[in-house]
Request: fold
Amino acid sequence: MLPEEVLRQAAAEMLDWHGSGHSVLEMSHRSQEFASIIASAERNLRDLLAIPDNYRVLFLQGGATLQFEMVPLNFLVGCGCADYVHTGIWSGKAIKAAQRLGKVNVVASAEDAKFTYVPPQNEWRLATDAAYVHYVANETIGGVEFHWTPDVELPLVCDMSSNLFSRPIDVSRYGLIYAGAQKNIGPAGLTIVIVREDLLGKAQPAPSLMMDYRTHTRAGSMHNTPPTYAIYVAGLVFDWLKGQGGLVAMAKNNYEKAQLLYDFIDASSFFANPVRKCDRSLMNVFFTLADPALDELFLTGAKERALLQLKGHQLIGGMRASIYNAMPLAGVQALVNYMQEFEAGH
Ligand SMILES: *Cc1c(COP(=O)(O)O)cnc(C)c1O
Reply:
């Protein structure tokens, strides 16, 4: 979901952006107008996350999936190994991608319990010669989230695709953070990378031009044409987030929304969530029905009430309520009301 105010503003500015006589969709990425759009998006992004000056912000393409490869190409190739935490489907894909490029040490895996928890750090077997430690802050499909930041000496690399901007974070604890924009930020096509400057340029041999972070830091994300419209809409979302009270306010809302849904699921004998309570995602609430034969009926009834996109990921089935920043509490309440009604009827 995107904030309705943002969609309305994008619609109002569609034909003529700020009196420029043309649409952002038609703008050259080298124009003064677009330069002001990307500069303002970066400024607001930095303010919201309180990013220290020694970090660079990149607006790239290729999704988090390309970052699964760019990270090892820039930091693992030529080094001993890299540490990865395995908490679900997305970290599994990151591990597979890195294994093609170098040695991966899986420090901990929750596979034994079908990825329903985050292995605590005292159980991790960190390598002594690792180049970095990688983890996925929120497993979007299984609904498992880190509610703590790993405490490691090595550069910490994190996929925050589905929870960046959901709450304040301490960027200085990380070497690199990446996120595809389409979950909790804006339109598909934009990937945000936040990287500590001193980590750049150490790769031996240097990766290809497009895969080298330095190519993009040097060019201010304009080595080639960036995803201009996605950056513009993300910028509108950053304005909206500031107007809502920033990430402290978001964290409070997101906690209340998730709590409402989890409390209902836990009290129900019809719906269930298998994730360890302290590791449950505030963004993606996974749940199952007592009888999976009723799944389709549940989804049809939900759609009639404009409760959309509740079908769980094809890999694990069940249901998934994605309650990102723009989802109001009233939306979650409407879902709970429907679930209550459905449970009573079945
Ligand atoms: C969606 C998602 C990805 C993949 O993102 P793409 O933009 O499709 O490459 C990776 N990691 C997480 C945590 C995700 O939620």
Observations:
- DSSP finds nine helices and twelve strands in the chain.
- The mean pLDDT is 97.
